[in-house]
Write a structure and sequence with these properties.
Blueprint (H helix, E strand, L loop, with lengths): L11 H10 L7 E2 H10 L4 H9 L6 E2 L1 H8 L14 E7 L2 E7 L14 E3 L3 E3 L5 E4 L2 E4 L10 H5 L11 H8 L11 E6 L6 H7 L2 H11 L9 E3 L1 H8 L1 H11 L5 H20 L15 H13 E2 L2 E2 L2 E5 L4 H8 L8 E8 L3 H18 L11 H29 L7 E7 L6 H10 L4
Parallel strand pairs: 3-5, 9-13, 9-14, 10-13, 14-15
Antiparallel strand pairs: 1-2, 3-4, 5-6, 7-8, 11-12
Helix pairs in contact: 1-2, 2-3, 9-12, 10-11, 14-16
Amino acid sequence: MQSAQGTHIVIDKLVNGLERLAVDGEDKIRSANFVRLLQRLGFSEADAVLTCQYVDTDGGFRVSDLIRWMFREDCSCQVSKDMTALVLLESGGEKEYRILPWPNPSKPHLVKYFIYKDQDEVVVPGMELEPTGRGFRALQRLPLSLPSAAEIASWPLDLSLPQFQWNKDLLDKVRPVSAGERPWVIVLMGTPGIGKTYWMKHGTAEQKKAVDKEIGRILPWDNIFFKQIDDAIHHGARAELEKLWAECKEIKDPHERFRYYWSSKQQIFTRFAVDKPEVSESNPKPASYEFRLGVEIVKQLTQPGQLYNVAIETTGLTPGLVKFGLTAPHYAEYHKLVILVDFDDMEQARTITHSRLIAELNSCNMQGGEQFGNYLNVISEKAKETYKVCQELARTKNKELDDAGSGGGRWHTYRVKHSFPLDPSVQRRIDEFYGHI
């Protein structure tokens, strides 16, 4: 790799901005202020919040924590296409922040962070860094090692194999719809940690009847296969998760342990649910592990003459994914229902997801998704926007069916205004983890 000296522009605004944001001259920055700084530098609000939340602790973070996070292996986040790679250059104890171009022009929206020392020597990306009197030194612990997307793509997805017993167990709890009965596909979306899964699995009879009354149909609530991305990751990446839990036990500082767990869990979700291998002659349309597994599960649930009711859980971040799923050919004869679980107390949602991640660390067992922090606000707003798109889509599709005199499955939408008191044990788990009590 060529020397960075003289080939890139120093981003003075970012360096000066970080210095001005420091609290009382200390190595501490308030997260809200850092988000505003990134916005001034070209980041969208959503991208700035996502960048900041990786290191946020109690509304702020140390600059050294931000830098340590940046050098994790496979660390990436959505940012402005004008911002590529933020780099710390270090020579003779002097530090400079510079922007380097992203080396893969086909993915300009992904960011990788590297560090250079003495201009020519490259420290391996992903090494833990520790502040010293002269800058930073590499620690021994490297980030979690994950199988490549290409390796994961070679894994068999035959649902009869023992590793998919969990899917068979779920299937054994439901039955195909009766002859002449029209099946349902339900999309349940909303912010992580607000009780979507609990509402779907354990919601009261009154709550479910309210849905039936609103849409004018009686749903088979006791006979629905609930398809969740968490199941695919929990079982597909079981070895990686167990390795992560073992490594976290060796980290004494609770703040560092939490950040390492959360960022590594993000990597696992990205590798299994998003990453896909390169296009090749043998694989012209590559897809992620979770997507390919989902295809196999849906095939199993929508075989002619043996149709199952299906519920799919999602955040609702991307309207296109919801529309794509509901308009897929195998759901052509299904009734469709989009449910938005609306939850306005984002502070409570942040507390719940924070506590849930700590519970996973304590129990070595995955209990939910990977998101938490201020990014939950972004997800909440995006989910509401997606719901509006689905409402309009439902009106359009139903009109098309009516105009054609079709007796096909109808489209419905329903909004759940969800609220519940916060169990005191949720906050107590956080306080105990960080030694506040």
